[in-house]
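Pilot study result, target chain (301 residues):
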Amino acid sequence: MMRFLSSTVFAAILIAVGLSAGAQQPYPTRPITVVVPFAAGGPTDVLTRILGQHMSHTLGQQIVVENVTGGGGSIGAARVAKAAPDGYTMVMGNLGTHAAAIGLYKNLGYDPRVDFEPVMLVASTPMALIVRKTFPADTLKALTAYAAAHPHKLTFGSAGTGSISHLTYLLYTHLTNTQLEHVPYRGSSQSMNDLLSGQIDMSFEQVVSAGPNIVAGGVKALAVTAPRRAAAIPAVPSATEAGLPELQTTAWTALFFPKGTPQPIVERINAALDKAMRDDAVAKRLAEPICRRKASARRRR
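Predicted structure:
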């Protein structure tokens, strides 16, 4: 009888352990939201959607991209900073949202130094100084001379106060002692559209998104904010060649969780993102000009 009771108790323990293990399903068990803190169609948005599609297959759950615009990306970043650290909300942040914003906004609503768990650096690229195609200057020196002679007359478009494009604008005006009228948008795609139509005079855009419009002749590029030329637009001089070597900025983009997200979850997403970035098909799509991707998407619709 004692042997029978012991066997029964042992079997009951095994069943209980099995049920408990079954109840704890492996992460993720539902869709994951990635907040893009800028308007749809810009470089951050396109990058997130391409990588997210690949990660969805790896994780077995959908990656949902949500555009939360405003405040140079700080509104979207603040939402994620306050989200539950359960692995189901992330933000694709950048130099503006996770570095410069703390010095530009008095009531930021989050501290990028302590309120996030970094997952991975996703991309980095220099900026291109571009002007409308009818602008009466073809070099950086000529632009600076024109801006100095016409204070507050030139309009500069950015992805919003605190964005990378805005930070580069601040660096440029500081170095050249020029006065431009800042026109903040909710994303670089909106700024680019107005530049292409001649509604604003100039902007700093990431090379990856500005390149196709430069090559197509929709805008004029005067310099790249790097010591050397960019491979995507080799005809455009570097800032050093253009006579303003101090004009150097690098736009970086990285994925973040809210602070307190369990480390195994962070590592799971890191592995899925790393796999996506190493995929040749993904690399090819990322290298494809943004304007061509938009046209293809319109045709599919």
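One observation from the pilot: Residues 32-124+251-300 form a domain with the D-Maltodextrin-Binding Protein; domain 2 fold (CATH 3.40.190.150). A full batch analysis is planned for the follow-on phase.
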